[in-house]
Amino acid sequence: MGSRSRNLLCKSSSSTLLFLSPSSTSAQLRFNSFTPSKRRSMATQPSSSASSLTTNDTASPSPSPSPSSAIDFLSLCHRLKTTKRAGWVKRDIKGPESISDHMYRMGLMALIAPDIPGIDRDKCIKMAIVHDIAEAIVGDITPSDGVPKAEKSRKEREALEHMCKLLGAESRAKEMSELWNEYEENSTPEAKIVKDFDKVEMILQALEYENEQGRDLEEFFQSTAGKLQTEMGKAWALEIASRRRKEG
Length: 248
Known about the structure:
The protein has helices spanning 67-82, 86-89, 99-112, 121-130, 135-138, 149-167, 170-185, 189-213, 218-224, 231-247; strands at 29-34, 39-44. The protein is mainly α and 248 residues long. It is globular. Its EC number is 3.1.3.89. One of its GO terms (molecular function) is 5'-deoxynucleotidase activity.
C-alpha cells in the first residue's frame, strides 16, 4: 500500500437493507454525503407497494455505515480522546493534550485558513480529522521510540485497514483511506498544507505549555525549523515565534 493506486477499499459484510417508507403526506427526506471528487445523495422515497421495502442480493453496498458499525467505529475512536500525545507525556507536561485535541485544532486551522486558489478547504478539514486516526490502535509513535519509519507506516496502515473494515461503509471507508494516504505520502497540495498545520499546531501548543507551566520546550521549535512547505504555514510559524520572543 505505498501509493494511492493501492488505497484501502473496505467493503461491508452482506446484509439485507430495510428502508422504511414515509407516509404519503410526509416530506421526502434526503441525506447528503460528500466525497473528494463529487457530491452524492441518498434519498428515501415513498413506496407504492410492500415489495419496495426490501433489496435484492445484487444491490450495491450502502455508502453509509449501519448504526451498529457506526457506533463500533466511534467507540474505537474514543481512544483518540483518552490517549495523550506522547511527546508531552515524556516531558512531564501536566494535563497534556490528547490525539483528538491535536486533530481538532488542526481542523479549525483548515476552517479559518485564507482561501488559496486550487485548494479544497473541505478536503483539508477532513484530512486533518483523519490524519492521526490510526493512532486509536497503535498509539502515538514518536521518533524517540526508535521505531523505523517504514515499520511505523506499516503498523498504521494495518490499523487503518482494520478501522475501515469495522466501519463497513464502502464509500466512507474509501474516502477515509484516500485522505490518510494522501497525507502520509505528502502527495497533494492539500496534504502539504495539512502537514504544515500538524507542525504549527505542535509549536503553538509548545508555546502555550511554556507560558502556562514555565517550561523550556525549545526542542519542539527546533524540530520544525526549515520543514514547513507552504507560505501560510511559514507565516503562522513566524507569528508564533514572534509571540514567543515577546513573552519570553
